[in-house]
Amino acid sequence: MFDGYTSSELMSIFAMQGFAGLSLFSVFVLMAMGLAIIFGQMGVINMAHGEFMILGAYTTYLTSGFFQSYLPGLFGGYFLVAMVLAFLICAALGALVEWLMIRHLYHRPLDTLLATWGLSLIMQQAYRSIFGAREVGVELPDWMMGAFQVTDLVELPINGLFVMIIALSIAVGVYLLMYRSGYGKKVRAVVQNRPMAEAVGINSAGIDRATFALGCGIAGIAGAAFTMIGSTGPSSGQAYIVDTFLVVVFGGAQSLIGTIVSAFGISQAQSTMEFFLSGSMAKVLTLLVVVGILMLRPEGLIALKVRR
Amino acid sequence: MLATSVQAAVPSTAEVNTTGLAVTDDSVTVGILHSITGTMAISEIGSVQAEKLAIDQINASGGVLGRQIEYVQEDGASDWPTFAEKSRKLLRQDDVAAIFGAWTSASRKAILPVIEQYNGMLYYPTFYEGLEQSPNVVYTGQEATQQILAGIDWAVKEKGAKTFYLLGSDYIWPRTSNKIARKHIDKLGLKVVGEEYYPLGHTQFNSVINKIKLKKPDVIFASVVGGSNVAFYKQMKAAGVDFTDEQPLLLTISVTEDEIRGIGGENVEGIYASMKYFQSLDNPNNQEFVKAFKETYGDDMVIGDVTQAAYLGPWLWKAAVEKAGSFDIDKIREVFAGIEFNKAPEGYVRIHENHHLWSKTRIGRAQTDGQYQVVYETEELMEPDPFPEGYQ
């Protein structure tokens, strides 16, 4: 397995693969965080999560087009505007969807699964009608291209670093929101014991709507970030959704820490195996290990202790 | 006198249609069967547009055997069983005289038994892995040897390539293509330093990019398909791999002008593609074709290799019908070999007796504007060889 590499090459390999694993880790965190919030806190399986990501990506695409035509001088900074817009638009749509559809289906988790799956199909068709079936590319400002040269072999792509920073900021933001704010306290109260939370005057319907909107908004930011590394088409959301569910379920559905731990484990395992085995083989092995561990720990890596 | 001579030019329906196809005294119905929904829609819509354009042009110039072409369009929905079902419907219910359609090998394989059972005729436009030859299919794209052997020979001869890294999506076409590529590279006494496959839709290529940097191949031979391409080229660029200075050289068999639109021209500048057609081909046929295509579908349209191959379908069918003097599939089949099309946008094509086309292979270099500049083309038409000896 290590044949044919000198020891300095091996060092570089581990450095580069470590970085590749970290950037995969940030992608996983971005994808899974929104889903984990909605699933973990509300018990709703949001099958349209990938489509919300794509909505964020299309928002970025439109913003970049707008800056190119009307504000070419500010093009270098459009990305930050796009991320804010992506969050706001996805969160607004999320709130609307919660009000129209989800709130009628609480206590019926399988029905939310079907309803959000239908929603995902509707959104895909809408994208197809509005943007066409072809994939669109988003042009990056120059400062986001290129890489930092660390040694001869080791180079760190700037956009990879950027995705990492976004993922880190969001993880920290969500942590502060959930564990250091009044809103977070209420969310956790509702999750642990809904009737008791309502009895002490917490507006659980409002909390639900805000949480769903938050999860969708984070999906939007993830989508904006992914335009840097991937493609945007009506059905690209489907490509992400399997990995996303894998991360969330493996981590333990109700635990945000679990999501991060599982994203880290899966990404590092996959990235290391990808180098020494083939790409497809790495994926298969990762899946096998995850299935094996889930058989031993059906509730996921980190389970929340709740009295039932 | 004049009236009778015009009538004599249009043979009677009983004469040209003895097998109950949908042919009347003034019309003939054909089928168009592509995915216009689902994941393949991105690629196949261009083929639908090209086939309709060809049909319109043929109609405007008087039709086929004096009959206007009408078409029934069905949606394969990127689902192979649906392709089979719709082809059965086209043949049994609509009695179409020909079917233009399919893109993936999987959809073609799904149609094949149906079309052979009911003796229909499929005009299939995609470059593909070869190893097939059905009496009921005409392959208007390139088969593997036409695309790959000429491409590798070019890289070896013109660019002095010695080492190759093979990279593809994980399904039959890239795997077969790389098998042929590897055999050919071995035969030339050169070296394959890596071979790698990633699942369809994969978007993380950091690991393979690291490997490529370590192994420093002269040529990256790429057959990654669909949306994965966007991720691959963006990440290559971000990792500091610059194709404009030719080291490493990237030779793709899967990125047409269509895909570049999604990837972004700035990310693929300098890569090479081995195909038979590029939108930038400089000949009068192609200029006319590009102009007509843009007039019909809009100025921002781009035309890729497969779109052109789809455009050939109706024209080759018309030529064959007129040579046979009949719409009957069996009679058409007898006259296939040697049918030519002088007005092909790619220049000139001829049908080989193995139902594939003789055509030139060209190497194009991608520009920032998303177009390929042709840097090389084979002097002669390449003979199609779907069952290459020693390459299977």
TrEMBL record, chain A:
Its main location: membrane. InterPro entries: ABC_transp_permease, ABC_UrtB_bac, BCAA_transport_permease. The chain crosses the membrane at residues 20-40, 52-71, 77-97, 158-178, 212-233, 239-263, 275-296. Pfam families: BPD_transp_2 (PF02653). Keywords: Amino-acid transport, Cell membrane, Membrane, Transmembrane, Transmembrane helix, Transport. It is found in: Cell inner membrane. It is a multi-pass membrane protein. CDD domains: TM_PBP1_LivH_like. It comes from the Bacteria. Belongs to the binding-protein-dependent transport system permease family. LivHM subfamily. This is Urea ABC transporter permease subunit UrtB. It comes from Marinobacter qingdaonensis.
From TrEMBL, chain B:
Gene3D superfamilies: 3.40.50.2300. It comes from the Bacteria. The gene is urtA. This is Urea ABC transporter substrate-binding protein. InterPro entries: ABC_urea-bd_UrtA, Peripla_BP_I. NCBIfam families: urea_ABC_UrtA (TIGR03407). Coiled coil: none annotated. It holds the Pfam family Peripla_BP_5.
